[in-house]
Amino acid sequence: MNAVNDDRVAIFDTTLRDGEQAPGCSMTLNEKLRVATALRDLKVDIIEAGFPAASPGDFESVRSIARTIEGPTICGLARCNSKDIKYAWDAVKDSANPRIHVFVATSQIHREHKLQMAKEEILKSAVESVSLAREYCENIEFSPEDASRTELEYLAEVVQAVIEAGATTVNIPDTVGYALPDEFFKVFKYLKDNVSGIEKIRLSAHCHDDLGLAVANSLAAVQAGARQIECTMNGIGERAGNCSLEEVVMAIKTRDGYFNVTTGVDTERLYPTSRVVANVTGMHTPRNKAIVGENAFAHEAGIHQHGMLQNRATYEIMRPEDVGLGRSNLVLGKHSGRHAFRERVEQLGFHLDDLELNRCFEEFKRLADRKKDMYDADIEAIIMNVDVGKAGPWIIDELRITAGTGTVAAAALKLAHTDGREIREAAEGDGPVAAAFRALEAVTGVELTLKNFEVRGVTVGDDAQGEVTVTVEYNRQSFRGHAVSTDIVESAAFAYLEVINRILRRRDSDDRVEEKTIALGNP
Question: Is 135 helix (H, G, I), strand (E, B) or coil?
């Protein structure tokens, strides 16, 4: 390869686009900015910030990331049509390093059943779209969707044409996770052998995990010459998910003598970034998840423990410190000062400004009065939940629960509104959580349908914090909220109110847009 560094694999993170498409993983603008900031600190090369034409919210989030996040290339996805491409450019143009990513399906099953277009029509659309995108931006990526099920001769024809039209990166997606590693290797080998000028562009792989082979297929593509991997943190994404960023990066690092390539990722940021994404999306990392799961560096079997005591390399092929897990277990206490707290926060891989640090430190002191032991996971939970339930317009001032065997559970609460109102309400339910939810609905006037309720212990012990994640439906849309507290009912109430507040803020925002439209005299 002449146009790219043959020893360097670019990491293209699509957590904010493909990852967010996973059911229940939708994010607010502030949540997307938090994830984008974590990805920047992780030093990924490209952030696919979203699909600008999908909705006004998507457009605004991509534009905000492009204006805010410095360092990585900021990419916007577009279908092969002029409207999408213009939206994508308007969203990413304020980035110092913008990219437009256009795609169209090429496989026979997609041509016949989804697009109802002939090969020639798809080829023409691809070329025209890449040419149009190139008028806006020099950095253009093209993806032939479902490439792994596309006839090789036709795939090569499309790739040849878009390179000639100005594509600088060509991505080969295994859209439905159908390929096997050897097959996927052969696709890249065929393209390299049969497409002239392919050495001038960067080849990329985008793999889904339907057969559990996304990482294996991505690594096979690297062996065949791909120098960009598209992936997501924690492997989240549609259906079974995408290639897991942390797994593919650590495979390349751990087996560097085999692959003979590197990435620019700061691997010591992998664990903190994983925790941010898990917290924001509500998709908790399985304990046995490779690299970032709680059991990834745990050893219980006696023979394993004996080997570890003699030499860590007997049962660990990676050091936990390499992925950001070089941490003490029991930390700090209620008498710890602000300086010690800041130092621990930074050791855990988080970067807070003074205002954020003060808020987190105040919450830390309050929690330390309620808990006997404070753990790193407690501090992580504080950082990622300190503003939950406090953004308004409604805030819980008081919550009292009555429950017991043979009695009907009841909740009494006082809510304060940002406009100065204070309302007290009481309700009964099948249990204390249900009673609290009914009381919140009575005050706010927002009725939700609970679809899922999850409780997870943040740390250990009978005074451990419990993280509650609720998934609800409102007006046929899915919303998710989460909160942490040593009191599960309190945590559940904060999570439920977070969803209600999000709905009310969105409703208020839509009303302001409508008023502005009427004032301007627009239909």
Answer: helix
